[in-house]
Fold these 2 entries.
Entry 1:
Amino acid sequence: MTPVYICCGAGGVGKTTSSAGLALAQARAGARVVVLTIDPARRLADALGVRVGNEPSPVLLPPELEAKGSLHALMLDPKETFDRVVSRFAPTPEARDRIYKNHIYQHASANLAGSQEYMAMERLYELAREDHWDCVVLDTPPTHHALDFLAAPDRMANLMDEGVMRWIVLPASRGGWRMLERGSEVLASVLERMVGNSTIADIAEFFTAFQALWDGFRERSIEVRTLLSAPSTKFLLVTTPAPAARAEARLFVEQLRTHRQPLAGFLVNRCLVAPPNPGAPSFGPDPGLAGWAESVAELTALPERQRARVEVQEANIAELVRGTTAPVWRIPDLGSAVHDLGGIIRISGYVGAVVPEWGTGLGGTS
Amino acid sequence: MPLPPGSAVDALLARRVLVVTGKGGVGKTSVSLALGVLAARRGMRTLVCETSGADNVCGRFGLTSGGYAVTQLAPDLYSMSIRPEAAIEEYLLRMLRFRKLYEMVFRNRVMAPFIDAVPGLHDLVQLGKVFDLERERPAGLVGRRRAWDLLVIDAPATGHGISMLTAPRGMMRLTRAGPFHDNARDVAALIEDPARTAIVLVSLPEELPVSETTELYGRLGNFQAQVACVVLNAVEAGRLPPTYPSLRPALAAGANPAGMDALALADALLRRVNAQDHARASLARLGPPVLDLPDVDAPVLGPTQLDRLADALGGEAEATR
C-alpha cells in the first residue's frame, strides 16, 4: 500500500500550506508525491499551479531546488468525484443516468452531509492505488472533531444500509407505505405531513436508484477503512502554539491513541523565535533627533516582550506533545510571504523527509 | 486610515439578527461577543448564539455552559449554544407533539442516520431556532414586546457559513411543498431581509485571510447587500514613532548585538503594520465599511479583553480611558 500522510487540524492553522510544504519536503528528498487538497484559497492553488480539477497536475519546481523527486497536486471536486463513483458502481448506463437525473441527487450530491469527507476518502483511495506515487499527502477538511472524516465511509454505508433501503424503498415501489415494521404507518403519515408527497416520492426514487450501486459502495467503504488503518497510513497534526489551539490538538492526539492510529509528527506553524543575543539593547548616544528617545524606548522593550511570548509558546508545545515521541517541526512565523510557492518551499525546508530512504526504492515498501 | 466606527456600528445594532462569519481562526467568536458586549452596554437585551456545537463562550466568562439553555453572561448579555441535534429534536418534537412518537419515528436505527444525512437540515434547523428566538415573546418582562433586542449568531466558517445562509432556499427547492417547505420559506424571509438581518465578515490583516474574505464576499451572491461591515481583527498598534524609518540607519550604526535583534523585531513589526494597511485597503474595495479591532495580547479573550474590543467597535476607545 502506498504510504499516506493525513494532515489534520482545526481551521485557520495553515493546514493547506503545511500539507503542501510537507509534500514538497518529500519530493525534495526524492519521493514522487501527490498532494490532495480540499477547498484551498484560490491563491494557493495558483501558487501550486493547480487548477480546480480532480486530476493531479505537476507543480513546476524551480531548478535551483534540485528536487530529486516530483510533486503533483490536485484539488478535490466532490461533485465530480461523486458522479464518477456513481458511474463506476452503476451496473448499466441506464442505472447511472437515472441517478444523475434524480431531483435529490442533483440538489444533494455536493452537500449531502459528510459527502465532502466521503469523497476525499474516495479520491485518496484511488490515488493510493495508483502505482506511480511513492506517497500521498492529504489535506483534510477542517472538522470540529479532527477524526470525524475517518467515519465518513461508515456513515455513508449506514445511510445506504439495507434496512433503510427496505424500509424506505419497498413501500414506495409497492405504491404505498405499507411496511413490515410496527409503527411504520405512523411514520409514513408523519413524514408525508411534514415534507409532502412529492418529496417522499423523490426520496424513494433516490434510494431505489441507488440500490443497484449498493454492493459497490459497501465493498469500497471496507477497502477505504482498510487503507486508513494500514500501518503505512500516518497522521500529522498541524497546529499553532496558541493556547486556544491546544485543547483541540490534545483531543486529536488522544483520539489517535484510542484508534491506534500512528502519529507521524506535529507541524507547529507561526512559531516565534527568541532573539539570539542576550543582554539589553543599546543604540549609542542620543543625537537629539526627533523621535530618537521614543524609538529607543520601544526598541528596548521588544526583545523582552518577544522572549516572554516564546516562553509561553514553548510551554504550550511541551504540553501539546506530552506523552508522545513523534517529531515536532517548528515553522517560524513567515508573515504574509507564506502563500506562494516561495513560502511553501520555505516551509518544506523546516519539515524535512518523514522517510529518510525516499528515492532509494524503499519508500514505497515500508 | 480606518473609518470612524461609530456610525457603521449604530446601523449594525439597529438590526435584529447579526450573522458573524469568516475564515476559520480569525476570531469570529470574539467579534460576536464584542458586538454582544457593546449592545448590552447600550441596554439591549442581547443573545449570542454559538452554532458550531461547541460551548466556548461561557468558559470565557468563568461560567459553566448551559448548552442549549440560555445562560446569562453579564447584565443584558446572554448566550446559548444552538447545537444542531438539540435544535432538530426541538423542531421535530414540536411538529409531532409527543416525545414517544418522536422517539419512535426518528430515534431508531433506520431514521437516525437518514436525518443526519439530509443536506442542509442541521443548518436550516439552527436558523429555524434563530427565527423562533427573534419572535420570542417576553415571559414576565413587563413593557417589552420581544424577548431579545439583538441576536448575534457566531456562524460557521466560510463555505459552511454560506451553506447555512442558503440552507432555507436549498430546503425549499428540495421539498417543493409541505410544512417543511413553508417553514424554510419563513426562515428565508427573516435571513434575507436586509432591514432585520445583517452579515458581519471577520478577517485578519494578512494576505491569505484577506483574499479568502474577498472570495467569500464574491460567493455571497444576493447576500452581499446585507454585509454591513468587515471587521479587521487583531490589528497591531505599531507604537514606533513616525520618524523611526529615517532614524533606523543611525540606530543601527550605534547598536550592540541585542540592539540589532531589537531592530530586526521592529522591522518585522513594521512589515506587519504595512501589510495591515494593504489588507485594509483591499478589503475597503469590497464596499462595506472596514472596522479595526486591536490585537489583544492574551491567550483567551475574557470579559476584560472583550470590553476593550467593544470600546474599539463603539469608537469609545479614548473617551472611556
Entry 2:
Amino acid sequence: MKVSLNWLREFVDLPESLEELRDTLDDLGLVVEGITHVGEGLEDVVVARVNEIRAIPGADRIRLVVVEAGGGPLEIVCGASNFEVGDRVPLAPVGAVLPGGFAIERRSLRGVVSNGMLCSARELGLSDDHVGLMILNDVPAPTGVTLLEALQVTPDVVFDISVEGNRPDAWSIQGVARDLAARYGRALRVPLLGSPSGDRATAEVAGAGIDSPELCQRLTVSLLRGVRVGPSPTWVAQRLSAAGMRPISNVVDASNLVMLELGQPTHPYDADHVAGRTLRVRAARAGESLVTLDGVARELARAGRGLGDTGVDCVIVDGRDRVLGLAGIMGGAASEISDATSEVLLEAAAFDPMTIARSAKRHGLRSEASHRFERGVDPELALVAVARFVAVLSQSCPDLQWLPAPLDERGVMPSRPTIHLREDDVERALGTRIESSEVRRILEALNFSVLDATGTLEVTAPSARGDVREAAAGRADVIEEVARIHSYRALQRRTPTWAEPGVLSDRQRLRRRLRDTVVDLGALEVWTPTLGSDEDFDLLHPGAKRVRITNPLSAEESVMRASLIVGLLRAWSRNLERQSGDVVLAEFGTVFAHPDLAGVSRRTRGGAGGALEVDLPAENERLTVLLGRVDDDARHAVALWGVIVDRLGLADVVVRSRDALAPGLHVTRGAELVDRSSGAVLGVLGEVDPRLVESVAPKFASRRVGVLDLDLDALGDPQRATRRSSLAHVPSRYPSARMDLAFVVPGDVNAADLAHALASSDELVESVRVFDVYRNEILGAARSVAYAVSLSAPDRTLGEAEIAVVRDGLIQTATSWRASLRA
Amino acid sequence: MKPNPLESLDHVVRDALGQLAAIDDLADLNGAEASLIGRRSAFTSLQKSLGALAPEDRARAGAALQEARRRVEDAFEERRRVLDSGAWERRMREDRLDLGDVIAERVVWSPRAGHPGLVAITQRELEDVFVAMGFSVAEGPEVESDWYNFEALNIPPAHPARGMWDTFYVEMGEPETVVLRTHTSPTQIHLMEEALASGTLPIHSVMPGRCYRRDTPDARHLAAFHQVEGLVVDRGIAFADLAGVIETFTRAYFGDDIEARLRPAYFPFTEPSAEFEITCTICRGAGCRTCSQTGWIELGGCGMLDPAVFEAVGLDPEVWSGFAFGFGIDRCAQMRHQIADMRALTENDVRFLEQFS
C-alpha cells in the first residue's frame, strides 16, 4: 500500500526524520518496502521554449536545439524528435540533479557543446512515457519557472507499506496514522466531514435492502443531488497519484480518496440508471451473469475448484432485481457514472470477508475494494465514509446535497468480542512487565474500549478489528497489539533452560554417519529434483501408477520421483559433458510411491475440518550413490558397501546376486543386501542398466556405472538392520592357527553363506574370509572359492590334532553345501 | 502369350523365409538384408520385369509382388527382433557377475576427498547449534494432508492466508486435500500430537526438512527448499524466551557481532507473531545493497503458539504455552557464502560442489 507522508501528517504530527519514521513503521509491523520521493529533482528543471532546431553535421540521431528558459538562448544537444519550434519542453540545466541522482553536466557531443538536457516524462519520474520529450504546451506556466511550480507538484514522500493479513484496520492512511499516533502518544485528527441537507428524506426517493443477511453485514444507500461531474481539485488528484491511482472524475476520485483515506470502499451509481433507485444485496442465482466494468462477461454462482468453494457470489441488484455488480469487487457497466450524471446513489457497505475472498479468487478479479473487503472493512465506518465523500465532492460541486436519513440496513453483524485481560496476562505472555495504565493507554489509542474491573481489564475490540477473536485466542490478539505499540524491541529477552538434553534423532545420526562415510570415500553430494516428467518415471516404471501433481509448473515437473537414479545419472552426464564427471555422486532423498502400490498406506485426516480420511503416498528415504569414475563398476559398489557395513556396525549383511532385481539395475550385475538374521533387504547394489544409461546419457552409453541404493528406513530400523553385539570380544592371548581351504562351490551357493556356515560349524573358528575366487571353463557355473580360516581358543594354543578335527568338520560342512574341497 | 514373370514368386518367398530361419546371428542377418529384401533381392528384379506385362495385368501383378515382399520384410523384422533380444540376453549372460564373490580388498579405489552438499553442511551446523542449546531434532514427511499443512495451523480452507503459500497439490483423494508441504510447520503438529499421546511433554525441538512452493525458480527462490522449524511447548514460556532463543542462536551461528531483532508480523499459527531480522552479514550493519541500506536482513518468522493451534491438537493453553520459529536453511547458506543465484544449489556442477567441506 502506498502511503503519502503529506497525507499522514494531516492525521498526526510526525517527526521530521525519514529514517526515524521508516524505522518506526517497520517496528509497528507496517514494513516499509520502498520509499519514493515525489517531485524530487523537479525543483531544478524548468519550462523551456524551443526556438530553433539545427542539424549537426555528420550526426543523424542527434540535433542541436536552441531553447529559451528565461536566461538567454541555450544550446542543447537532443536525441528526441517529437517536438517542433515553438513547443515548450522541460529543461534540466547544467547542475540539475534528476530523480534517481543523475547529475547534468556540460558535455560535448560531435564537437557541439550541450548545456543541459531536455527530458522525457520518465526521466523526470513523472510517468513511464519515454517515447520522446515531455511536451508542456498545455501547461499554463511561463518559460523559466520550475516544473514543480508549473505542474503544481507538492514535494512528498511515499512509503510503500506491506500490510499484514491480520490488520484490516491498517489498509488506510487513517489506520497507519492511528498506529503512529498510538506509538508517539499523539492525537489522531479527524478529517473534515460533510453533513446531510435537503428537504426530503432518503427513504422517499430511494430504496435499500439486504436479502442475504449472512453475506452482507451492513448496507447504506445515500442519495446525492446537485452533482456536476468534472475534474477533481488538484489536491485530490495529487493524493490519488501518490497512491498510484489515476484521477478519473470528481465523483470516482472522491470515492477512491475516501477508500484510501479511511479504508471504506464506496460505490457511486448514476441514480437515473438504477431501477427504482434501489440497491439490494443478495446471493447470485445459478444462471445469472454480469458484464463487469472491465468488459468481461461473468457467469455467477458457479462452484469453484478450490476446497470448500460452493460458488456463492454476493451481488448488488436494482429495484427490478437485475444484477448491477459483484458486491465489494467490481461494478457493472450499465450504472456507471458519466458526464451527464447529476444524481448519485452511493453505496457504502460491509460484506462477509470470506465470501468476497472466494468470489474474487474464483473470478480472478482483484480490486482495491475487494482487497479491503477480503480482510474485513469496519461495518461501523460506512456513513462516516459517506460524510467524508460529501465533504470532498462539495469542493467541486458547491450545490451538493446529501439527503437526510440515508438508508441503513444491517445483516449479520460480526460480534465484537470482549476479552478479559487478567492482571498478569501480559507479563505471563510477554515476559515483560508493562504497567496496566500503559496497556490501557495503548488499547484505547487503538480504539479498544477498556473497562477496569478489579484485577481484570475488560477489553472490547473496535468494530474495525474483525481479526480479534474470542477468549484465549482474543487475549493473544490483544497482547500482540500491546506489544506491537509498546515495541517488540523494548521487550525483555531471556534464554530459557530445561532439564532435557538436546539430541539428534537416530535417523539423523544414521544419515550423518552414512554421509561422512561416502564423502570420505570420495562422493560429492548432489541435490536433484523431486519432481520429474512422465517420461522420467517411465524409464524405470513404465506404465505404473504414479504420484502426480495437480497443478505442476510444467509437464517436466509433474510426477514425484520413485527413484534417485535418473536424477543422479543426469547430473553425472551433465558434468561429463563439461569434462568433470569422473566422479562419485551421492544423494540423500525421499522417493514416493502411490498408496495403491506401496502396500502400506499412510492414512491421515484431511479435508475441511480434518473430517475426511486421506491416503498419502508412501515415502521412503534413500541414499543412492552413483559410481561414475572411469573404471567404476559393480565391484566398486560392493567395496563401498563393505566399508559402510563396518561403519554402521551391522552384524552380517549378505550381498546376494539376483537377476533382474530392480528397475534401473543391470539384470545380471545386481545384488540385494540382505540382513542375515532378519532377512530384511537393506538396499541394492550393482551397475546401472546399460539401457538406462543409454537413454539418459547416450553419449556415455559405453561406460559402466556402479550404483548403491540404500533404504534408510530399513537401515534405521534395528529390527531389520541387525547391529553387531555391543559386548566386546577380547581376542585370545594365544596365537591363532590359520588354514586356507579352497572349495569348488556350485554357482547357486553364495560365497558368504558358505563362509557363515563354516564360521558357525565349530566354536574354535575365529573368522572365515574369502581371499580368492577362481573360475574356468572346466568348472562351468561353479567356481573355486578360497577361504582363509582362523582358529583360536581362549585358553590354549591349538594343537595339530585339534586343528585337523576342525578341518575335517569344515570340509564336512562344505559338503553339506554341495561344495567339495579342491584337490 | 508371354510367360508370367511372377510364376516364381511363391518359390522366391519360400526360399527367402527358409534362409531367414537359418540365420542365427545378428551380423549375418544384417549382411543378408540386401539380398533378401533390398536392392539385390529377387523382388527388385521381378519389379523390373513387370514392365513387360500388359497394362491390365500389371496392376494385379504389382499388388501380388508387394504382398509377397511385405511377407518377407515382416519375417525379416521378426527375425531381427528375436536375434536382437537373443543378442541382448547373451550380452547380459556374458556380463554376469556374482557380486557375492567380489573381494572388496581387491577393488582398486583411488583416494580422493568428497564433498557434502552445501545444504547438508549448513543444516548440520544449524542442528549442532540447536542441540547444544538443548533442542532435540525431529523430522516429518514431505507430503502432508491439508489438515496438517494448513487447518491445524489455523488456516482453514479458502482462508485468504492460504494464499500466503503457493501450494503444489498432489492428485489424490478430494481436490486440494493432499499437498507437498509448504513449510516445516506441519511437523510441529505431529510432534505435539505424539507428545500428547505418549505423555512426553514438554517439547523442545527443531525440525529441519525439505519444503515445496509453486514458485518459478529465480535467483532468490527455489521451488524446493529447506527450512528449519523450532518448537518449544512448556510451562511458563513467554515471548521473552522466544526472543532470547533467537538471539542466542543468531550469535552462535552467525557470530558475536551479529544481532537479532524482532518486528511484528502475521502468521496464522502464532500470536503474537514476529519476523526476525539479523544484522546484515554482508555489511555488518553499515548498510549495503543486499540489505537495502537498512543494515538488517530478514531471516525468518516466529511467534507464540496461537491458542487455535493448541485447540486443534488438544493441548490446554492454560497449562502449556510455547513458541515456534522457522527460517530457510538454503538462505543461511546463501548469506554465509554470498551466493548470488540460489539455482547454483540444484545445478550440481562438480566445480561448485567441490568448494564445500
